[in-house]
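Contributing new records

If you add data, match the layout below exactly. Sequence lines come first and carry their own label; structure lines follow with theirs. Keep one chain per record. Anything else will be rejected by the validation script.
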Amino acid sequence: MSVYLYPGGFRLVCRSGIGQALLHQRRALAAAGIPLAQSMREGQIVHINTVFPDALLAALAARLTGKRVVYYAHSTMEDFRRSFPGSNWLAPLFKRWIRLCYQMGDVVITPTDYSRRLLLEYGIRKPVYSLTNGVDTDFFSPDAARRRAFRERYGLSEEDRAVISVGHMIERKGILDYIALARQMPQVRFYWFGDTPACLIPRAVRRAMAAPPDNLCFAGYIGQKELRDAYCGADAFAFLSYEETEGIAVLEALACGIPVILRDIPVYQGWIPEGDGIWKARDAAGFRQAAGDALAGSLRETEGTGRRIALDRRLAAVGQRLAATYQKEFPVSRSETDCENEEVIS
């Protein structure tokens, strides 16, 4: 049974978690030995990852031609809010739109039990599975050489303390709280990795970024190799997002064994426990305390709870769970198997 990963809109999302999720699906399917089709015509299952108009039309075309459609629900109304200018006003309309998109799937897959509950509350009347986006735990892993590379690149000595965060420059990602945290800890170096078109950055965020504390660097977008160096080289990862459906950056940080500071929000309940190199907080005072505690440790927990959480979500395991979902929802009849064998023989 072959799978076609619909690429529409990838250029728009390639620097986001959705873009990474699509790449992860490619690697997970390969690890599970599931063939990837080069066109929709060749594929028996079509994966849709975006909610742009072309994606909805692609899902409709796939269904009209007898393909099975797996719609990935990466977005919710809740994580659309507090993002780009006008997003709060548009959120109810966005909810109606994504509900229409997801209903086009024969199966809906979303990253966590939390986002699955939201979709069921929306009234999605299709089978909804929670399945992590996964993380490449071979690529993202603790490495002393990568730590040195990061610290040399940014002029950090071993005595310097550095905190990093990753994401779009929007309120929902907690950037205002991150700037405030940097201001409270002038003796620590802070870095924010990520880029957002200026027209999409909310006014409050633009104002705060225009006058940052001296110890905060907005380093812009960096590639995966340099990002891996940052996870390995920093002393803590502070991800203060108000809402997520999972958080691929969190998985990457956990995989690299870096101490992680998170906002205590529902999406992490049940799979990211506090302790052993993981801190959760709800407000500025809590973030300041958590950062102080994380930076006070002399050794990083490279093989602690965080790394184990990531290994449970490695891409090979994601591929196996995808294959099990296909077998459950799209059982292959004997006649279909015979046809496939005939094509191979011919």
